[in-house]
Design a protein that fits this description.
Distance between the termini of chain A: 65 Å
Number of helices of chain A: 10
Structural class of chain A: mainly alpha
Number of strands of chain A: 0
Oligomer: homodimer
Largest interface: A-B, 42 and 42 residues
Helix content of chain A: over 70%
Shape of chain A: elongated
DNA sequence: TTCTTTAATGAATAATTATTCATTTAAGTT
DNA sequence: AACTTAAATGAATAATTATTCATTAAAGAA
């Protein structure tokens, strides 16, 4: 009995991400994905029941990777500013290094592909970040403002910064990151 | 001789924007647009040579409307902070009131539809904003940092704020806007 | 080695979507 | 009113894309 090739799923994901980055969601087809992944079109249907499921699976995978990266090296026992900067930097770096995923996820939000379940799970994603900002308020590091507004502010600056860095085709230097962090921190700080 | 109906172009644009907001770029078809606009599919091809041109026209229209809104009521003779707040508020309000356009434009950036010309023109869009931020630096209102980083920071916070307000389904209150402006200003100020 | 099972293939089919075109309709001109 | 011209229509066609399926290939079990 022949066994399924575990590497194939990842090949398909990589192929799909590459295509989305180039042409957007509206530009990817099952045959293009198969070709890019180096497999036959029919093989896609062994690993995914259809295009919708392929996209939802990939989205979930991206969301998971994204989420997992955020709190890497975060130590709640350390001072708040240090921890906040760690998370802030994790988010920025993840988005720079995984720009394809970011583009894909952005495009999916307004697509006919994502199902209810995928959508719902995604909303829960921000909860740990929410708690982090709350901690900042509790410790009087941050202004006593609506947590969602603060969180949105922080996230927005990162998202746009990454997009801009990407399209201007110059890598963000370490000093740029410091600058961006300072802007964010100064905005939020008490 | 029958004359072209000038209202039709706008009807088509409205229809397309509505559909994009619901289903994304990947979800709109020429027949769906026609149906939504209340005209026959063939009629679309009288006003636009094909789907690509339709989308590029709509994109240009949206970009123009967006750009025109930014400096409404801006008076360079008034103090910087006042002028900056005017522009900041204009951008925020435009994006709230024209959320469909915003979604459409976002989706277009990574689509196979936008042509070179449309892309290029779009990049020039931010120039007046760039100059505004430069003025802030010259008057020592803003930190002496890279103008692009400052601009990106400002824009990012607005973009994300609007998205969030929309998806959380609660209208931004006047106080929320004040809060958001303060966060932005405090981040950028000297 | 032979058998069995499932992965893999890619051409064929089904479904969807863009585009065309013969025909009709409406508006302006003579 | 009769004529002319271009808009409008929507069914038909072309093009593209998703999905299936008969067939082959590969890997483990007997």
């Amino acid at each position: 009995m022949k066994l399924r090739d575990d590497k194939k799923t990842q090949q398909v994901f990589d192929a799909a991400l590459g295509l989305v980055k180039e042409k957007g969601l509206a530009g990817i087809t099952m045959s293009a994905i198969a070709k890019e992944a180096g497999i036959a079109t029919g093989t896609l249907y062994i690993y995914f029941t259809n295009k919708e499921e392929l996209i939802n699976s990939l989205f979930s995978e991206c969301r998971k990777a994204s989420l997992e990266s955020y709190f890497r090296n975060y130590d709640a026992a350390r001072p708040f500013k240090e921890g906040f900067k760690t998370v802030w930097t994790n988010i920025l770096k993840f988005r720079i290094e995984n720009f394809e995923e970011v583009v894909f996820m952005d495009q999916c939000y307004h697509s006919p592909f994502l199902n209810e379940c995928t959508m719902k799970l995604t909303k829960q994603m921000k909860y740990p970040l929410f708690k982090l900002v709350e901690r900042g308020k509790e410790e009087n590091a941050f202004k006593q403002l609506d947590t969602f507004l603060l969180l949105t502010f922080m996230i927005g600056a990162i998202h746009e910064g990454v997009k801009n860095a990407h399209y201007s085709r110059k890598a963000l230097k370490k000093t740029d990151m410091e600058t961006m962090f300072t802007l964010c921190w100064d905005g939020m700080k008490q």
